[in-house]
Design goal:
With about 250 residues, the chain is of the alpha/beta class. About 45% of the residues lie in helices and about 10% in strands. It has eight helices and seven strands. The chain has helices at about 15-25, 35-50, 65-70, 100-130, 150-170, 190-195, 200-205, 215-225, and strands spanning about 5, 30, 55, 85, 135-140, 175-185, 235-240. A seven-stranded parallel β-sheet has the order 3-2-1-4-5-6-7, sandwiched between helices. Helix 1 runs parallel beside helix 2 and helix 1 packs across helix 8 (about 215-225). The mean pLDDT is about 95.
Length: about 250
């Protein structure tokens, strides 16, 4: 797939695996994350392993001024973005809604909703002008139904679903495709972040079950992007085999 792909949150987990999958296919990459060191290392690996071109735009997606500056300064050779993967996102805490840390709530809302909206606003007008493009938002099965200890995170992913569906309606008279990819249990650093660095608690989330991996989700993202231009996969949900819902996981 010889296209230009912009991926947010590309320094680890699903974002990193997605960058690797598109690099294997010969795509040109624009990678975003806060961790410049990890991004630089990934850029070197992908360029050496696959001969792909990689341009880095390291910034916190919550910083709208930096987002505007970084995306506005993308060089001409990378400027025609074919696929935007809005991957940056996180969960923080497992508290009851009325007991949680408001800073955690604001971080989730700012990252999972407002930043996704801002990046979309910065990229989609160019797609419209070129009459081609694909926006892939990384949602979650958590956006379908709330669960204890996750109400705010679930609310943000429900918002991702609404924003994705709304954008698709806004663009229905164009060739631009819009997809919501909704993973279930994926073993990345997601739970470590959720538990504020407590790896022991994070590991229990994936104990006695074979979870999905970032690579599994990257394959689905690539599949969605590689569909023929007249095919729009509006939404796709991916679960581990022993998972039936956000809460139902067989650990026998």
């Amino acid at each position: 797939m010889h296209k230009t792909i912009l991926i947010t949150g590309a320094s680890s987990g699903i974002g990193e695996a997605t960058a690797r999958r598109f690099a294997q296919a010969g795509s040109r990459l624009i990678l975003n994350a806060r961790n410049t060191e990890k991004l630089t290392s990934l850029k070197k690996e992908l360029e050496e392993s696959y001969g792909t071109e990689v341009y880095l735009i390291p910034f916190d997606v919550r910083d709208f001024q930096s987002a505007e500056k970084a995306i506005g300064s993308i060089p001409e050779t990378f400027r025609q973005i074919d696929v935007l993967v809005n991957n940056a996102g996180l969960a923080l805490g497992v508290d009851k809604e009325f007991e949680g840390d408001m800073t955690d709530y604001e971080t989730m809302i700012d990252t999972n909703i407002k930043a996704l909206l801002k990046i979309t606003q910065l990229v989609v007008p160019g797609m419209i002008a070129r009459h081609t493009g694909h926006v892939i938002n990384i949602g979650s099965i958590a956006g379908e139904k709330a669960y204890p200890g996750g109400s705010v995170y679930c609310a943000t992913k429900a918002a991702v679903k609404a924003l994705t569906d709304g954008l698709r309606m806004d663009l229905y008279d164009t060739p631009i495709r819009v997809t919501n990819v909704k993973p279930g249990l994926v073993e990345t650093n997601f739970s470590v972040i959720r538990y504020h660095g407590d790896k022991q608690k994070a590991d229990k989330v994936y104990s006695n079950v074979k979870p999905l991996t970032g690579t599994d989700i990257a394959e689905v993202i690539y599949f969605v992007a590689a569909a023929p231009p007249h095919v729009q996969i509006s939404e796709i949900e991916i679960l581990a085999t022993h998972q039936a819902s956000a809460q139902m996981v067989w650990r026998g």
